[in-house]
Amino acid sequence: MFSAKEQNAINEKLALLGEFKRGEISSAGLALSIARRRMSWIHRNLNELMQRYSYLPIEERAHRIIFLEHMKIVPEHSEVVRVSPHKIRINSYNFCPYLEACNQLGLDTRYICQKIGEHSIQLMCRIISPNLYFSRNYDNIRPQSHEFCEEYIELKTQ
């Protein structure tokens, strides 16, 4: 069902989320660990990626850097819709190791994605531009609703 690479990613998330489920690490501790890893990655790669995508508006640039470059999402699995001059909606249909691990461990993706994952993506956005904000519509997140996760990146101009 999953490729070897996908299964390895699932196994990594099963180990991390298993520690959380067993009480060996708090949600804040796990969120901090993920944020550190993602901050290290973005600091190493940001200059080159900002130049590569300099022709795009900053919201779309952030999407490319975070979703396509860092998370390695196939572009066809990450639909971008501009909903206002400074805000994009991202419909994520991609393979997600957190979704698969949550399903196997009986964890709620709404909680895991909000309490453990969202902060690090927000930090990545802020490094790209201090006025960028990331959010999710937790009413439309897999597997509870739809076949995709509904996410947003917005440039706040005030």
Describe the structure in your own words:
The protein is of the alpha+beta class and 158 residues long. It has helices at residues 4-21, 27-52, 58-70, 97-105, 109-128, and strands at residues 78-84, 87-92, 132-136, 149-155. The chain has a four-stranded antiparallel sheet. A hairpin with a 2-residue loop joins strand 1 (78-84) and strand 2 (87-92). The mean pLDDT is 96.
Question: What is the topology?
Answer:
Blueprint: H1 4-21, H2 27-52, H3 58-70, E1 78-84, E2 87-92, H4 97-105, H5 109-128, E3 132-136, E4 149-155
Antiparallel strand pairs: 1-2, 2-4, 3-4
Number of strands: 4
In N-to-C order, the SSE pattern is: HHHEEHHEE
Rg from C-alpha positions? Answer: 15 Å
Largest sheet report = 4 strands, antiparallel
Tell me which CATH architecture applies here: 2-Layer Sandwich
Helix-and-strand structural type: alpha+beta
Q: List the strand order in the largest sheet.
A: 1-2-4-3
Give the N-terminus to C-terminus distance in angstroms.
Answer: 47 Å
Helix share bin = 40-55%
